[in-house]
Amino acid sequence: MDQASALMLQRYFREYYFKRADNIKAPSEIASREFGYFPFGGGMIRHLSFNEVGTLRALLVREAPAGVYCSNSLYQDPTAEMQKKEWIRAEPIFDIDADALKLPCKRAHDVWRCKDCGRSEFGIRPLTCPTCKGNKLLEFTWSCPTCLEGTKKETFKLLEFLEQDFGISSSEISVYFSGNAGYHIQISGSRLDRLDQHGRSEIADYLTGTGVMLSNFENSKLSPTDPGWRGRIARYIRDIPVGTPPFKTNELKKRVLEIENDLKPAQIEEILNSAVSSNAIRIDAMVTADIHRIFRMPETLNNKTGLVKKRCANLSTFDPSVEPIALPEEQDLVSLEVDMCPEIRLGGVKFGPIRHELNVKVPIFLAVYLIARNAAKITLPNQSTVVSPAALRGNSEKISSTN
Ligand SMILES: [Zn+2]
Ligand SMILES: [Zn+2]
Q: What is the pLDDT of residues 12-21, one digit of tens each?
């Protein structure tokens, strides 16, 4: 990142922490948690501890870091090295990210760039560059309203699993927009806090449907009202539309008899795989299993976007393109040199798609987003200017020429 763009990003973060540090709340049992942060252009500083949130806020105002993190684990000594911290317990965390959903819209908005010849295009990264045949291709993933809606749906599916299958009450669950392209779901004060890594892996396997087999079930008694995966598979088989092969019948009971007596193993496997994949939750299983991570703190800024990691008090009505904007009151326009940006929506602005344009004028929150995503840099005052075509719609505008 060029220096002018990096400085602008840093200034924005500094202003955010100066104005909004009070939004950052103390996690429960703050003194038992490990904190970490990394400054712009620097490495992670971990194994920190705070007895009260005021000291943390003061650090954020002073340092304006690029990222701020806190452990979901509690330790006897959070400042010790990992092996000597003496783990007490950890709140289970689930991470749902748009990229893991592998939705078809990725083809429209992801970007790749060839490191050898510099060619860049929208779409899924090819194995080799069509121009120079080089194989050093960088991939830039983006998210669109479809992706964000997809992650929200996945989060609702997870909440249903947690409440129905694990008996977690909704008051124990907090949902956060990650500040980028998905949601973090955290459970506080439940029996699951004491689970070790192995137990957490088992939960992740259960949620992702890993190892679910029809032979695990006594098929003839499958009922849509069964708990857990049994009920989900029964409802899936019941709801397969009338006349869909390989089934010749339409009722669940008769279809189960077909599975037991008539269908080939490959057909049964295909039905089960579809039942599992339509019910499984696309969580990052590594995140759930790991009890020694530190996670981005709520109300701090995501360095990959300049957006806030935001608590969703009401997930149904939460708008990830509006609510996470750090300083919505700041509407100054910034002139950017934009590289490759697909169509995006942020703060009521519909922007792009853009391929290599100079002097694109956007509100500061959008400038911060594009710079943080490495898709743009600040136009320097002495830079030569060209008229840029209308690619920006909504409430922002473009400048034509400055000289
Ligand atoms: Zn190339
Ligand atoms: Zn998308």
A: 999 999 999 9
What is the pTM (predicted TM-score) of this model?
A: 0.91
Task: For residue 169, give Cα distances in angstroms to 144, 166, 174, 184, 194.
Answer: 31, 9, 11, 17, 17
> What pLDDT does residue 383 have?
54
pLDDT of 199 above 60: yes
Ligand that lies nearest to the alpha carbon of residue 150, given by its number in the listed order: 2
Give which of 184, 188, 179 is closest to 67, Cα–Cα.
Answer: 179
Residues 6 or more apart whose CB falls under 8 angstroms from that of 281 comprise 94, 96, 154, 157, 158, 161, 207, 208
Specify the range with the lowest mean pLDDT, choosing from 3-12, 37-46, 51-60, 386-395: 386-395
Q: Is the pLDDT of residue 246 over 50?
A: yes
DSSP class of residue 179?
S
Q: Angle at Cα 157 formed by Cα 154 and Cα 158, nearest 5°?
A: 90
Boundaries of every domain in the chain: 3-97+146-206+284-311, 106-143, 211-279, 333-393
> In this structure, which CATH number among 3.90.920.10, 3.30.40.10, 1.10.10.60, 1.10.260.40 belongs to the domain 3-97+146-206+284-311?
3.90.920.10
Bridge partners of 112, per DSSP, are: 121, 139
Indicate which ligand has the atom closest to the C-alpha of 181. Answer: 2
Distance (Å) from CA 151 to ligand 2 centroid: 10
Residue 112 is which amino acid?
Answer: W
Structure tokens at 31: 């003194």
Residue 240 corresponds to which tokens in the numbers above? Answer: 């397969």
Distance 79 CA to ligand 2 centre (A): 40
Residue 380: per-residue pLDDT: 82
26-47 per-position pLDDT tens digit: 999 999 999 999 999 999 999 9
CATH class of 333-393: alpha beta
Among residues 363, 299, 371, the alpha carbon closest in space to that of 329 is found at 363
Q: Residue 144 C-alpha to ligand 2 middle, in angstroms?
A: 4
* pLDDT band at residue 260 using 50, 70 and 90 as cut-offs: confident
Q: Which of 401, 390, 308, 309 is nearest to 359 (CA)?
A: 401
Residues known to be catalytic: 95, 97, 284
User: Whose atoms come closest to the Cα of 130: which ligand?
Assistant: 1
Residue 135 CA to ligand 1 centre (angstroms): 8
Burial class (CB within 10 angstroms; exposed 0-12, middle 13-18, buried 19+) of 395: exposed
